Automatic annotation (TrEMBL):
Domain G-protein coupled receptors family 1 profile: 38-286
Residues spanning the membrane: 24-46, 58-79, 99-117, 137-160, 197-222, 234-256, 268-288
Organism of origin: Otolemur garnettii (Small-eared galago)
Signal peptide: none
CDD domains (alphabetical): 7tmA_OR6N-like
Family: Belongs to the G-protein coupled receptor 1 family.
A GO term from the CC aspect: plasma membrane
Name the UniProt record assigns to this protein: Olfactory receptor
Amino acid sequence: VTPVFPSITAKVAETMFEDGSLLFFFPLFIIYIFIVIGNLTVFFAVKMDSRLHNPMYNFISIFSFLEIWYTTATIPKMLSNLVSKQRTISMIGCLLQMYFFHSLGNSEGILLTTMAIDRYVAICNPLRYPTIMTPRLCAQLSAGSCVFGFLVLLPEIAWISTLPFCGPNQIHQIFCDFGPVLHLACTDTSVILIEDVIHAVAIIFSVLIIALSYIRIITVILRIRSVEGRRKAFSNCAAHLCVFLMFYGSVSLMYLRFSATFPPVLDTAIALMFSVLAPFFNPIIYSLRNKDMKIAIKKLVCSQKMFTVSAG
């Protein structure tokens, strides 16, 4: 069954951005450029510094790479809506946006879980760490996170594409998301609750694994007698823990509320938090909270300056 209407209107553009669209456009544009440049810097700093060729930093570099595409799935369309009077998206475009945004988000969530397990093994079983977290296993875990993240949503998106849709054809959100789109379907609304349960189970399962890993990690760290040893162990985990809290905190607010409804402004603020603000802070956290990363970034920047001078 094909959708009844050819396009969906981003209703939030009328409510939030109607007055002073350019006032929102330039900050969002600057944030997006920073996200791309910041995460590319982290990615290349890890790849070009041989001292960072270990599981933890390899996972960070892949996470940074995913962040670029995660934001690219939504922010460019947000920017175009801010300077366009039409503010519409085709049904196919809406489904593709949902698929790539949530597939990349799922991949990031699985990768964050993998990173928590990696830190658990490194701190709780340091002698066995090199034999457990081999380069081959790390590559398999990284590839598996991405493959599973993209495959798991295919049936869901395919199912949504077969639903009959009817008016009004306006979604009250800054990008296409499952809830707003399913509310437009001319079908039993119980499917929305089923969707909420599936997403909630996946989120809670990941959060539990990460939380249990870090409870065990913190317990082991507190037993370390050396103050310097405790400081170094906490420092290695602090960045990942901050990213985990931001990512899953905002995602939980968005997808663990079931039938609860928020005011449109709060709904938009939560959506901006996990789709824009969390990716904005991630490169800052990973670069400022880690001494080795700061050194690698300085080396990367200096090498680029030297290349520019020699090329000139």
